[in-house]
């Protein structure tokens, strides 16, 4: 029988506010590097008598995410207590939103291998992160620096049908959250974590099968591999006449294996009830409107605009969009380039090629780069509009610009890299090369025509790279053919 | 000649201001009294005498420098569920034995900032769960009027300390009657403020939607004075009101009650009201009428459900509030090999039987399949109880009745019967559920010489009206001037 997978995702994203969800302790994005238990107070340590106060900035960022995901922000939402015992949970309950979340009923549009999907968002709510356990030989220690950091939980509808779709949705959602400035998108540091709900059903069936839940997926790869494995596991069960049972699974990323965390009968009763320490959260239409007015253009819209207005190749746009700083840089360079005749696609090619390569070798990222978008455009103008330099020189110039922060004109002048476009000069070089290379000339004339490249190379070397390669090839061909006619 | 510690706070302030006494003398007098009687009364869990004398001396210096503050130099005591920086705060439980908070509760900070001298921390039923202070993990407190009897609870230590002159003022906390009932049983004044008037930040939570800090004092003026100091919005408590705070003493002048409509509840036999309590209440109502008040019968139809409603909501909230006591970060810790064993041993040995009983009740009420039938249903009834008061207050300005069905009962008398113990709060639960203020003032004595308390309930945020009525009643009577005989022999 053919089966169809039905997948829903719960995404937990840290919200990068100045202070924690319910206290004034600062939020540090990478708590792993701090001395343990240094960013704590009576509230996030759950000392007796301490009380939570809702962080307004976290709510504002939650609303921002809700609006970007086309959700209805609820005028009244309620914080609830989710009770369970664990050493990393200081109060013995997590403050979260349950029956009345911050926002409901939205969607995210996602492109999956040229196909467009709209994935429904069931709900978005705010909650607090737990502390972190460190297991050692001498016992287990707990660090509460992370305890109380705001988290946004985004629950999708079961709208995905394949691991690829789940992965594409997760990546698109990550891009949106990064664009909104509420998360760094750094998966390795656990800034975004996934849980997948997976079930299968006969192709074409309208009912849902029994679902299982895979927890703690910390990378896109883990997500798609785990979902893939779970679909296969469920198909095998059904094919052998068995039944899928409710389970909570974990994913061993190193061994690429699923393991059972909890069976149905071990399911927790979290005993949710409204937190009496926190009055219902009222969100006024005015507040929502002011946040809506400040929403940035989102990755998918930006990509579409680049393709439509700049004539960019889809795949280049996709590479340049996700990092908001990089996208902004690219867009600025395109604008400067358009003013002087540089094609946006050329800017894109240089961004995804040389600029990416140069950035990779440095840690500062695009925001720390010493080359402004304007100067990148100026370099490309010298290359493509004025023909003043060739590609090889341009690459060298860009590298120097990254080092020194000089203008392209200055580098060209300092290194003497301006292109030789005087035919007489090139012809003189070609004549010299042919005269000095009788063996290669003979081979060429005997029919080994690819050797033309070797002659071009020689000309480039003689001119220290300043020749325009096309022109050099043309001159080499004309002179070699002249040799041929001289021989007969 | 009475001891300085038997003065009311406002009397003592007058003498401090006129320079006739010093805070050091006043504080020493209170410490002497503690030395003399607390072996019998057992009101205190922790005493801070050296610190108190140092604070008193600093208060005297401040006064000599021309400064004055609302409570400058007045010795006070705090219930042991109020976090006090550097002073052990056990909440009456083994679970927090040895715990020293790194911060002050907001109300504690305000009392200190008002210049008060801190004598120590008073005994209480563990986690404020109880009506007799017998659920203290350490020892029971004895009623200063009869040492064989309970002082009431859970703020029994605070009420007994104030009654016995072991503190001029004290703070207690009232979740379902825990300030008013012990005040009644110890013959002192106790106030439960409107929910949200006083910050809960630093008050170790029992039931968050019901807990309120309140003053215990020897007369209404003192209660008003202390209430004015602790009331007021606190950004650290999201449930604290924005519109709070007032100098309540400034309005305590009226000695008649002309035009006041006093609501009187018809009592039911099942309330179990002791005849002498009913008599004292009747006489008090007559006094109010003599002062010009009009007595109007009122009814609270859903009042009969207050006890069951309270014992669902309060334990439900407590079951989550007390989950933080897991032995990981502070407090009682038992050696264990696994996390589960760590939790269950710490909680098994750290909590007493009443606390465990309520955690289990609350856990049950919140469990899947029971939540709707118990917790949600209780919340609905709570709304009806609130609506009953709203309706009653259309016709009357205050509602007056007994605070406790009985006078102080014998130590050990109700220990074996939790439900009988719960009934001690039968008359104080509705106000807590409705979030409205009520005060207990002395209104007589039974044949055994035990005090009876009169409860005056007012609408939300009408503390002023409540205190004015209590003040006028107090001016017309002298019950509040009586002191337990234990004092004379000390």
CATH architectural type of the domain at 4-258 and 460-489 in chain B: Alpha-Beta Complex
Look at the structure and name the CATH superfamily of the domain at 4-258 and 460-489 in chain B. Answer: Amidase signature (AS) domain
Low-confidence stretches of chain A: none
Helix count from the secondary structure assignment of chain A: 15
Largest sheet of chain A: 9 strands, mixed
Strand order of the largest sheet of chain A: 2-6-7-10-1-11-12-13-14
What is the number of strand segments of chain A?
Answer: 16
Number of strands of chain B: 11
Query: Which chains share the greatest interface?
Result: A-B, 31 and 46 residues
Work out the helicity level of chain B: 25-40%
Q: State which percent range the strand residues of chain A make up.
A: 15-25%
What does this structure look like?
Chain A is α+β, with helices and mostly antiparallel strands. Chain A is built from 15 helices and 16 strands. Chain A has a 9-stranded mixed sheet with strand order 2-6-7-10-1-11-12-13-14. In chain A, a hairpin with a 2-residue loop joins β8 and β9. Chain B has 490 residues and is of the alpha/beta class. Chain B has a domain at 4-258 and 460-489: Amidase signature (AS) domain (Amidase signature (AS) enzymes). Chain B contains 16 helices and 11 strands. Chain B has an 11-stranded mixed sheet, sandwiched between helices. In chain B, α2 (23-41) packs antiparallel against α3, α5 (156-163) packs parallel to α6 and α9 (306-321) packs across α12 (372-395). The radius of gyration of chain B is 21 Å and the shape is globular. In chain B, 61% of the residues are buried. The chains are: A alpha+beta (488), B alpha/beta (490). Chain A binds chain B through residues 42, 45-54, 81, 83, 85-87, 90-93, 140, 142, 269, 271-273, 275-279, and chain B through 81-83, 89, 91, 96, 99, 101-103, 105, 200-205, 207-209, 235-239, 316-317, 319-320, 322-326, 328-330, 339, 342-343, 363, 366-368, 371, 375.
